[in-house]
Amino acid sequence: MKETLGASASRISTKIFHNDEDTRFLEFVKHDYEKELPEKSRKLIYFKRDKERDFAILSLFLGSGIQVNELSNLRLKDLDFEEKQAYVFLTRVNDGATPLSNRAIEALVRKYTKAFKSNKSMSPHKLLMTQLGHTSTTTAALYTNPEQEKAKKAAKQLGERRTNYRGNN
Questions:
Q1: Structural domain for 155, as ranges
Q2: Which pLDDT belongs to residue 1?
Q3: Of 9, 37, 159, 161, which residue is most buried, by most CB within 10 angstroms?
Q4: CA 12, 164, 145, 147 torsion-angle sign
């Protein structure tokens, strides 16, 4: 039996951020996620190692509307720096580093949103749904590449919400 559009919208509504939840989510990752991990655990060690990278990834998702494959392939040359080869987001492998895969980025988003939303993880696409102004719950709306203006507006709104959130605490 097919789900009605209203039922689908209601179901998805419980899985996305509303109001200032995106800002509270970033603050949670930055200040509180670590407290939920067992002391001296591998998870805690890896979190401390990757915290800045992970926070940058989540902030970039929420502030720009970038897609997972665009983020995993983002290179410094794409940011107009002089260095033309290194990737922006890396993971440590043995004695070297390798670019994060799409799957690794998706797992990162799910890990933090699951901890923040009490075991209700979100995909990167759902993480961005509200921030990019999507009103439709269709698959096409979740996977379309946002226009530049929507991304700029989302980044501006996130910056304003962060400023207001910090001012209230």
A1: 14-160
A2: 56
A3: 161
A4: positive
